[in-house]
Amino acid sequence: MIKAGKIMSKYKYLLWDIDGTVLNFEEAEKAAIRTLFDKFHLGECSDEMLSHYIKINKKYWKLLECGKMEKERILVERFEEFFAKEGIRTDEVKEFNKEYQLALGDTIVFNDDALEIIKAQKKNCKIIIVTNGTAIAHKKKLERSGLDKIADNIFISELVGFEKPNIHFFEKVIAEAGIEDVSQAVIIGDSLTSDIQGGCNSGIDTCWYNPKGEINDTNLIPTYTIRNLHELETII
């Protein structure tokens, strides 16, 4: 769905979120955890257990985005809570998380022909990757997906020193990517509290990728809302 009343114009700078937007994070997440359950001899990880983990993980990342918890803590404590809930030993949780960061990059699944869409956009626009998460996980994802060779700039929160939606993250993006006029930029992402809030904080137009048609229960109003990345053709 495109916001009514907006005069369409071509953007010069496209800020792309990765997990959940360009790449299907849930598929990578499930594959990584199942692989590591086998590696650490933790038994079978059922669909129900994965559902529990996904909810726990989202809860911790919300705390990070709100500035209520440091990344070093959430990376480990999410698994501590998950393992405790499932009655699994927690003595190797730190090593499990370390291996998990690498395993996340082993499964690359694009959403809605995202790779082809970005390649087409590259002809007329500057492609800027803006992602939260760890450097070790994202560097592997970007390399295996080929996005590292397409993007003009890559900003990983762990290397930037701030997480989306922190205004300082976006200030660094604007400065280093050479965005002289933020009205020529748009951020495309699936997270209201990270991508859309960050765009609002920095005066950048926002495109909420909402493939599941989730309810927006925040006070944030994205410039655009889409359910399929192909809809970007009418925006960009």
Name some characteristics of this structure.
236 residues, HAD hydrolase family, 46% helix, DNA polymerase, domain 1, PGP-like_dom2, Rossmann fold, 2 domains, 6-stranded parallel β-sheet, 10 helices, 5'-nucleotidase activity, globular, alpha/beta, HAD_sf
Largest sheet: 6 strands, parallel
Strand order of the largest sheet: 3-2-1-4-5-6
Total of domains: 2
**What number is the mean pLDDT?**
93
- What is the first-to-last residue Cα distance? 14 Å
Report strand %: 5-15%
- What is the CATH homology-level superfamily of the largest domain? HAD superfamily/HAD-like
Question: Briefly, what CATH class of the largest domain?
Answer: Alpha Beta
Description:
The structure is a single chain. The protein has 236 residues and is α/β, with parallel strands linked by helices. The chain folds into two domains: 13-23 and 110-234, 3-Layer(aba) Sandwich (Rossmann fold); 26-104, Putative phosphatase, domain 2 (DNA polymerase, domain 1, Orthogonal Bundle), CATH 1.10.150. 46% of the residues lie in helices and 11% in strands. It has ten helices and six strands; from the N terminus they run E-H-H-H-H-H-E-H-H-E-H-H-E-H-E-E. The protein has helices spanning 25-39, 47-65, 71-86, 93-103, 114-121, 135-145, 147-150, 157-160, 167-176, 192-202, and strands at 13-16, 126-131, 153-156, 185-189, 205-209, 224-226. A six-stranded parallel β-sheet has the order 3-2-1-4-5-6. Strand 4 (185-189), helix 10 and strand 5 form a beta-alpha-beta unit. The longest helix has 19 residues, at 47-65. 36% of the residues are buried. Mean pLDDT is 93; it is low at 1-8. GO terms for molecular function: 5'-nucleotidase activity. Keywords: Hydrolase. InterPro entries: HAD-like_sf (IPR036412), HAD-SF_hydro_IA (IPR006439), HAD-SF_hydro_IA_YjjG/PynA (IPR011951), HAD_2 (IPR041492), HAD_sf (IPR023214), PGP-like_dom2 (IPR023198), Pyrimidine_5'-ntase_YjjG (IPR052550). This is HAD hydrolase family.
